[in-house]
Amino acid sequence: MDNIQILGYIGALIVGLVLGLIGGGGSILTVPLLVYLLGYNPVVATAYSLFVVGTSSMVGTYQKYKKGLVDFKTGLAFSFPSFIAVYLSRRYLVPGIPNHLFSWGGYTLTKDMGIMLFFAIIMLFAAISMIKKGEPEDTQSSGQPYYKTFFQGVVIGTITGVIGAGGGFLYVPALVLWANIPMKKAVGTSLIIVTINSLIGFIGDIQTLDIEWFFLLTFTGISILGILIGVFLSKFVSSSKLKKSFGVFVLLMAGYIMYKELQ
To answer: With the C-alpha atoms ordered 63, 68, 74, 77, is the resulting torsion angle positive or negative?
Structure first.
């Protein structure tokens, strides 16, 4: 095992710690780690991220369920349109994106660059949300018709499918604002959606990519260990302060990705 692999596994532990501490952000760390440190191309990195985040979120779902913080009915209502969109995105949309998107002057935008730039833009919005708002407030707004939930699930599922993210940072505010679920239960419920979406999206990738199972399972196992440690430490650390600090870090990472891809 060389130094780069060791650093990668340390990164996997950090990914788990972040998930355990703040309930999200795993893919925001996983994709850049796989691309820039371990040298995977963005399509493979986003696929691996789906497996890591999906499996880790399954562990998180169980932890939240034991505390009564999971609304299965609402979670499954969002999951159905979302996992269809994620699967179709990974099975057909991502493989169908041309390797050469466009050229302008002497600049050429490739598929890999486009995926990473889109990922950075989503990171930017997530960072601003975490820095400005911290935890979303609970709301007393009424529920919504299912056709709106279906449409929202399709949109978020497509975005998360393209960037290889679990989408927890998108689903939590959606569950609070649209489904009228209290914040703590929204975090737990979002983990169901993230688990189903990520793992089904990864199934779409299995059909188009060669998977390095030993590395992926080792990386995922270390991330799960990090989650268990993070869940324990979360009892002693302010979640709102963590989210804002992590938001600043994500903002810097988004800027770094844009710099790397556009230079």
So the answer is: positive
